[in-house]
Amino acid sequence: QVKLEETGGGPVQAGGSLRLSCSISGEITKFNAMNWYRRPTGKQRELVASITSDGTTNYLDFVKGRFTISRDDAKNTVALQMNNLKFEDTAVYFCNIEGAHGMMKDPEGIPEYFYGMNFWGKGTLVTVSS
Fold first, then answer.
1. Is the dihedral of CA 72, 75, 80, 82 positive or negative?
2. Which candidate, 80, 79, 68, places its Cα nearest to that of 23?
3. Phi–psi pair at 88, nearest 5 degrees
4. Mean pLDDT rounded to a whole number for the chain
């Protein structure tokens, strides 16, 4: 099974910082990008930051200069450092791996290979008070 688990969310005052971390378990041999999305209450999900397999990063304009995405391949984690948080950053934040290739085992232990799949974590809530 491929599992993504986000940690690090919580309440914070405007101007403060939080660091979100996403732990990825499972056998993944290749991927296109690791992403952080967010969904503010009552709004649609939006892509906040991404880092491709070659390390190229991209950010939502609203968070540029304040958020930094990074990856630790040795620990199988992807992090989102969020500084100078604003009320508008309040949202549930989701970790995503896009275009993943790898292997899972079925209940009988037989390997099943997958290609080009997307996986999601369950999300972590960030609440910024003004």
1. negative
2. 79
3. -70, -10
4. 95
Percent of the chain at pLDDT exceeding 90: 88
- Asked whether the beta carbons of 12 and 85 are under 8 A apart, the reply is yes
Q: What CA–CA distance (Å, rounded) separates 30 from 53?
A: 8
51-79 in b/e form (b: 16+ CB < 10 A) is bbeeeeeebeeebeeebbbbbeeeeebbb
- How far apart, in whole angstroms, are the C-alpha atoms of residue 120 and residue 96? 5
Distance CA 113, CA 25 (A): 15
The owner of tokens 């009320």 is 87
> Stretch 54-75: mean pLDDT, rounded?
96
Closest CA to 96 of 45, 43, 27: 45
Is residue 99 left, alpha or beta, with left meaning phi > 0 and alpha meaning psi from -120 to 50?
left
Angle among Cα 37, 42, 43 to the nearest 5 degrees reads 45
> What per-residue confidence (pLDDT) applies to 59?
98
